[in-house]
Amino acid sequence: MNDTSILVIYTGGTIGMVLNPEKGTLVPFDFDNVYEQIPDLKKLHYKIDAISFDPLIDSSDINPEHWIQIAETIQTNYESYDGFVVLHGSDTMSFTASALSFILTNLNKPVVLTGSQLPLGVLRTDGRENFISAIEIAAAKEDDTPIVPEVCLYFENKLYRGNRTFKYNAENFNAFVSENYPSLASAGVYIKYYKENIHKPNFKKLKLRTKIDKSVGILKIFPGMQESFVKSVVGCKELRALVIESFGAGNAPTDPWFINAIKEAIDRGIVVVNTSQCIGGKVDMGKYETSRELKEIGVIGAKDMTTAAAITKLMFCLGEEVETKKVIKKFLLPWAGEISE
Ligand code: ASP
């Protein structure tokens, strides 16, 4: 065993399931028996410890309190480990990866999220390779410095910047894409790191952003949308920020009732952000006539941010700022490589 140490934070999800031979059913994996389940891990010669959520959860039940719990676990153990692997259900992994990238300010160690489409206990599982490669990536160093000191997501031979990912497929082992940012590494016979795409460490002390306000919403627009529906969404009393998931490069219906409903929300101090339903490219309001008025009434273009990054970032902006102008200013700054400059 060498002196590299990795902490695995096991939150739940499909990856953690193995067959209980007595019952013949899939049950959550017991980390005390990690080497029994994956004997190949021993070949890495690392010290691997694990902390499990209790109860383990399907990632559909993840909420901002869990993001803070994961981040605090990393902070508490930061000096004792070289890297961190977060085992997480894939369904909301892009939201958690985005949120962690915002919470963990001055992160100088790898935090690799991974999961799988098939449980570890199933013969054709993709979980074994995902897990072993994630550990290798979390442990990788050059000149005693971690190669990937950022929050990233590993799935089916690709390492992505976490806050740029989108789960696009419910069945493929290759379930994620990162259309607006190139991958950080790819795993074949060797793990090849694309260093020009990876954050450089800043060697400052880790700090956590923990102030969150969940008074946010997403409105995915569609042809045929009814006025009463839009009005009930923007009329929500608690709402402080709304993400409109628009068409293409930020386009939306030009019906006066739609523009007026959004304008009324902005006049009430609600921050309205425009992201695209497309998984690649960027919002460019004013390019088409169908987005000109949105720009004029004060809708904020999220450029090439994913919806997951935009909605999680807004929760932190609202948690930290009261004034609408300050929320918008903060939102448009790059925090962790989630937006192209
Ligand atoms: N429903 C599961 C989850 O997200 C799917 C998975 O683990 O990939 O927790």
General description of the model:
- β18, α6 (256-267) and β19 form a beta-alpha-beta unit.
- The chain is globular and about 65 Å long.
- It is α/β, with parallel strands linked by helices.
- The chain has nine helices and 20 strands.
- The structure holds aspartic acid.
- Aspartic acid binds next to loops.
What's the mean pLDDT score? Answer: 94
Find the structural class using helix and strand composition: alpha/beta
Top CATH class of the largest domain: Alpha Beta
- CATH level-two architecture of the largest domain: 3-Layer(aba) Sandwich
- How many domains make up the coordinates? 2
The largest sheet has its strands arranged as 4-1-5-7-10-11-14-15
The CATH superfamily of the largest domain is known as: L-asparaginase, N-terminal domain
Percentage of helical residues?
A: 25-40%
Q: Spans of 5+ residues with little confidence (pLDDT < 50)?
A: none
Distance between the first and last residues' Cα: 43 Å
Give a count of the beta strands, DSSP E runs of length 2 or more: 20
Query: What small-molecule ligands were found?
Result: aspartic acid
Please describe the biggest sheet, giving its number of strands, its sense, and whether it closes into a barrel: 8 strands, mixed
Sequence of secondary-structure elements = EEEHEHEHEEHEEEEEEEEEEHEHEHEHH
Shape: globular
How much strand?
Answer: 15-25%
Instruction: Count the DSSP helices.
Output: 9
> Radius of gyration in whole Å, from Cα?
21 Å
- The CATH topology annotation of the largest domain reads as Rossmann fold
